[in-house]
Amino acid sequence: MQDIIRVGPVPTGHLATEQYVRMRDGVHLAADVYLPDGDDDPGDTILIRLPYDKNGKYTFLPLVAEYFMESGYRVVTQDVRGKFRSEGETLLFVNEADDGYDTIEWVTQQSWSNGRVAMWGDSYYGYTQWAAASSQHPALKAISPRVTGTQLGEPVHPANGERTRDVEWGITYLYPMTWFHSQDAYFWEPDPTVRPFSAQVEQVITRIGSRSISYDQWYPRPVHLRRFPTGSPFDARPVPALHTIGWWDNIAPLSWDDVSEIEKRPGWALNHFLRIESMDHESFYLDDADEDRVAERSEAQIRAILPRMLNPTLEFFEVFVRGNGRPEDVPRVAWNLAGTPGMRASTQWPPAGTHSRTLFATADGRLDALRPEAASEATWAHDPADLVPSSVSDAFAFLLEKPDEATIGDHPGVLVFTGDAEGRDLDLVGPVTAQARIRSDGPVMDLFVRLLDVAPDGSALRIARGQIELSDATDEAVVEVDLGQLGYRLRAGHRLRLHVSSSDYPEFIPKPGTGEDPWSAVVTRINHQTITIGGEHGLAVTLSLRDAAA
């Protein structure tokens, strides 16, 4: 195991004044207050609540606050309970609704506040916005959550009688042992060759000298504490929301789950504005120049991306916080068709005018528009000692590396199916699903399906993916795998390809092959997986298409 790196809070910058905000239970949370040009007259406030250090380089919030101040906003950035300079117990997710309400109430009582509050932020500090919305504070006028979800970080729950469920992310158990172990952050890398993974966590706990209550609530006996004490944010009073999703965000499935919940509630649907960009979780973009794909951006590079990150929010707040302009002029859905410039607008997602096309896997490794009449089988080995590697070192920054995944198809644990070169541009717009009959000689089977764009030079970019776990896997089952939503232009001369496998490590926790809990298993066994090709339930992928001229 590598060294454990401890990271504490960064000093408050010269543009901010640090204050301590009292919560209803007497705990004080550290907050930085930014006033434009020191103006303490009443004005609109943007609140940002996060666990990543309000002054840290990772989130560059002093630069974000400076940008918002240029538009006249007061800005409050706050370390959430138990993190960095804030007091209280370090327990992720469950305190954000009440603490969000109390912080908004504190803001409204300040001399520089006019009583109108909005919120902005990514990931966990997108989640804190949904939590605050659930608290229904009347001063919260609009939110702008990006690359997040209301079920962010929640472990996969038991299937409750169903044979399929999601595959657990590796980050699920590592996050409460890094960012949410205690006030400071601790960074360390697990050794992929050492099992059980849970024992490595215990070694880290011993070396740090204290346990993580956030980890202990989830493992080994999960306690699912209530995230929203007064109920789901989508059952609360609707708040205008600019909801941003990245096509390559690894947690986009959580965002789309929230979209589905919102669409069931007319009040929220009326206040929901969707924005979909060709970016990943860390705001690296598909069209970034090569020199901007760096793990640590310079201040100049950060300042250069702020308009792209923040201007949509400022335009949204201008309407819904300041009352300038008409809500009906804000696009209900603004989206980028990856591989093309600019944003498109539609009244719904998917946009009108889409239709489906199904491609079928064949025994000779092709994807074909015609279903093979005869059914056959393809097999592969899931070897816990030789796992299919994840294509990037950081799943949250896929477009930082923008990997060529063609070589992953060379792994013995991957089946490959490739379509014909397209004769013209093909716009993939809407949901993507895969269907197949599968079984294993092991008790539990993971099925990973990746959709790739293969260029004429042979390089392959992953454009969609999905995965499921099948229990009682010795009994065959017909399954459907949700590969998510897609907005992508496949250029003429390019081909579609499917990669099918049973692991993607370390992004997902690999099955040991024995049916035991993969986090605590010591013994592993090779499983042989089988998928049907052709016939009624042969492997197929269903795409949503739109006329490229639309």
UniProtKB/TrEMBL annotation:
The keyword Hydrolase applies. Keywords: Hydrolase. Its EC number is 3.1.1.84. It comes from the Bacteria. GO terms for molecular function: dipeptidyl-peptidase activity. InterPro entries: AB_hydrolase_fold, CocE/Ser_esterase, Galactose-bd-like_sf, Xaa-Pro-like_dom, Xaa-Pro_dipept_C. The keyword Hydrolase applies. Residues 314-542 form the Xaa-Pro dipeptidyl-peptidase C-terminal domain. NCBIfam families: CocE_NonD (TIGR00976). This is Cocaine esterase. It comes from Microbacterium azadirachtae.
